[in-house]
Amino acid sequence: MSALIYQPDRNPMQSGRAKTKVWILEFDSTAPRTTDVLTGWVGSDDTQTQIRMKFATANEAKRYAERHGIEYRLIEKTPHRQQSKSYSENFSADRKESWTH
Asked: Which fold has domain 2-32+46-78?
């Protein structure tokens, strides 16, 4: 049994970063997905793929996996750098111009 530990990306439809500070432990699928002949729906006999556990930190998720004997892969994102942008900087005298006259 193996799992993936990661932080979710932000919703691309919104500018905020809500729900991106948690860490998620998600189990990998061990059974192949099959298509139901009657309905055409895709399903699996593996119910562990439905489990998504949330943790406050990556260390908590790692400790949980190690305590229960779960192999895991940790995916860390690069930290987001906030760029300071000011409307008045567009008109400053020492601004480097990107276009020519």
From this structure: Double Stranded RNA Binding Domain (3.30.160)
pTM equals 0.69
Which two tokens mark 7?
């932080």
Closest CA to 75 of 1, 2, 29, 8: 8
What is the residue extent of each domain of the chain?
2-32+46-78
In terms of Cβ atoms closer than 10 Å to its own Cβ (0-12, 13-18, 19+), residue 99 is: exposed
List, for residues 19-35, the tens digit of each pLDDT value.
788 999 999 888 888 89
11, 14, 16, 22: CA torsion to nearest 10: -20
